[in-house]
Amino acid sequence: MEMTRRTILSIGGAGLAAAVAGKAWGQSLPTILNQRYPDPSVEILDPSFAKYRIYSASVEKLATGMRWAEGPAYFPEERCLLLSDIPNNRIMKYDEVSGTFTVFRSPANFANGNARDREGRLITCEHSMTRRVTRTEKNGSITVLADQFEGKRLNAPNDVVVRSDGTIWFTDPLFGINGNYEGEKAEPEQATTNVYCLDIDGKLKAVITDLVNPNGLAFSPDEKKLYVVEWKGTPNRSIWSYDIGSQGAVSNKVKLIDAADFGALDGFKVDRDGNLWCGYGSNGALNDDATSSDVAGRKTYELKGSSESLDGVMIFDPDGKPIGFIRLPERCANLAFGGPKRNRLYMASSHSLYALYVGTQGAG
């Protein structure tokens, strides 16, 4: 719009401000969930967490419209975040400069976990139908990195992390082939649900074979420890800690975290201080007995843990002690640190994408 005296008078002062702001910013503004500072949804469970809460930072809702948001990965070169919308069989892209939210890839072979490798390429776990781990090259072509182990198809690659030596580590539970909502129901060919390491020479090794449906995974800042979520097999969801040897050998299995509050540990990331920022929500466990409701006197089996009190991000210190909680209106499945200074926490949560600036940075 050409700003003449006539157009200025016609749109008025408020209209001019809006027009100029729209042209200058060129982006959609996020939705602020809480107007007060400090944001009451950022809860301090231990005084040690206080330094990570920025007093004047709020949880922001950036985008919505997904069916099950997962696998966020940040790409600093383009200042964008990629994340999976599994049931819709697509990968979405959030541009943090323009604020736009668009489809990056569709179909996406029911992609789940994503990661950026050391050369800035996209590593993706396609957890159904193709059941493989791929790399998107700079020219847009796709390279298959792993789709079988010992001559049999992988189960459903779930989450992935790239170590500084270039090795790629990923979990392989059954979720993607358990039904038809997030892919295609199929019979597993592997006898166990493993954690794999893909060497830079292309050799695939099963480094952990005794976890039932391993899920999220991450390394400590010095990469001497590997943390893995076990979805099932213990009374509650757990995070196990392993020592990593000089040649990538895994040893000394120790339970670091036990979600005894019926929380659903899922994807997580580690900050530079070694704290674990974990996607959280109800694990879906039901009470043993039915309770009466106010609707027509029906009896229902309710959750053991309240979704309203569990949905969000739980932060644990390196010893496994809960120190903070970010309360969200939706269950958080996975998260990633992003932004130019790696201090913006992106949270992929059910239908939506949320963000919060924090007083730390992602490790790595």
From TrEMBL:
The keyword ATP-binding does not apply. The active site is at residue 266. Keywords: Hydrolase, Metal-binding, Zinc. Binds 1 divalent metal cation per subunit. It comes from Phyllobacterium leguminum. It comes from the Bacteria. Residues 68-285, 312-351 form the SMP-30/Gluconolactonase/LRE-like region domain. Substrate binds at residues 158, 182. One of its GO terms (molecular function) is metal ion binding. Its cofactor is Zn(2+). A divalent metal cation binds at residues 70, 215, 266. PANTHER family: LACTONASE DRP35, LIPOPROTEIN-RELATED. This is Gluconolactonase. InterPro entries: 6-blade_b-propeller_TolB-like, SGL, SMP-30, SMP-30/CGR1_Lactonase. The keyword Hydrolase applies.
